[in-house]
Amino acid sequence: MADNLEQKKKRFRGKLKNRSLEYNRYGRYLVKDFDFKTLILRFLGQCGDIILMLLPMWLWLILFLLAASGLIKIELFYASTFVIGILILLFVVIGNTYLSVLFRGQSFGKLALRMKVVDEDNGELDRNTIIIREAVGKEIPLILLYIFFGVLGVLGFLCLNGLVVLIDRKHRSIIDILLKTKVVVLSEKGRKPVEEKVKEQTIEVPKTENKIDLHIVSSFSHDGEYGVEDLFQKAQKAGLQTVSICDHNSVKANLIAKRAAPLYNINYVPGINIDCNYNGKHVRLLGYYINSNDQRFATIEYENLAKEKAVSMRRIQLFEEFTGIMINSDNLVKHSRFQVISPALIARYVLTNVENRNEKILQPYLKGNKRDQPIKHFVQDFFAEGKPAYVPIVHPTLKDMIAAIKAAGGVCVLAHPMYSFHKDIGLIEEVIKENRDGLSGIEVFNPRHTLADEKQLLELAKKYHLDITAGSEYHGENKKTFALGQTTCPVDVEVVIQNFVDKYKTHSA
User: Fold this and answer.
1) How many independent structural domains does the chain possess?
2) Of 112, 158, 199, 269, which is most buried with the most CB atoms under 10 A?
């Protein structure tokens, strides 16, 4: 008998563990935040929790009716009242807390209505956070208020909490705001078959007011979509007069662009975008007016490709281990001209593979709230720093790459610094100070920057007499954020960018 009971407990614990793993693996991507339409669920869930707390009270009421009707002795009723009082205290203090710990954020009411308490990233809470939330946010205040103010105190607390939930943008209670937690609705979408595929979208190249775009990416980069000739055709249609192709760690586009530019009546500035390391941070350095025949750039490209290939296999391995979705790496390599399997390439392969359409973890990208930009969200969720399939790459130092560009006759510009340095203006200033002899400018105008970012960078450029550049970072149709020619530079300020172009045009190309 004891062995059977122990086996049942073991099976139950196993089910709870699998339930938790399934949520972290799939469910967290499918949850929904509350809105005004679904707040009724929150209210009903709260009522469910209160019903559980007061469950012994219903037993007391039944005994009272039995005693009043003479079916049981009044002495038995008085004796049971003491026991029921203890039970009420235990249910108030322990009941929902025990269930919340057992089911990782789901009390009685939340279990019944498929709700869950999670952290800001929809992840499950640890045991201590759950206990603190239930005790400090509900049980202790209710007990103390009842002791000192009676029922009115309890009702007042519940009304105040309800008002905070209504007012807060994320509909959080007081304790949720303090602990940075929230209540979400568990979705059923992941259980339904998905018939849709990721659809490729095309965007017409609009006419742009800007005439200079000094940050364009070609298919010589692993994430660039168009060849050099196609980019010049699009640049001509967009009305651009000066462009620069800055591929990731490659100068090959410059050799073609130099010949193509006169055919389209466009001024061309040779460029490169080099991945660098600054004190552990991944940053990018733009090099302009470089000598594209310099052997240093061939070495940079070769070494970077070797690192990317090694990382590609590890990236796939981690993704497979986390999701359980298998990837045919040989097939992916065939579709990569550099034999580099980038996160975006994995995303397209996985999301367009019909065999994966019913995978729960993919539902947000196929039918859920991330389907508007599935590739972008997929890459951020699985391959960004700190995510399950992130693999770091050791890049050359910023100082060494500045020296390489300078040695090749080029001009060094820090690419989208507010994005690379996570808006740490002090750190950007530190970089500028350390590299004043080699760093000529900063890319102020870029779609990754806000107006506030641009204002701070303009002040830095003025303070340290740095050149200012602007680039759209156009990669092709798959990255909607970056449109050709849309550099965010005001038209009346573009004369400053033209000054940069004119200032160095006599440099070797």
Assistant:
1) 2
2) 269
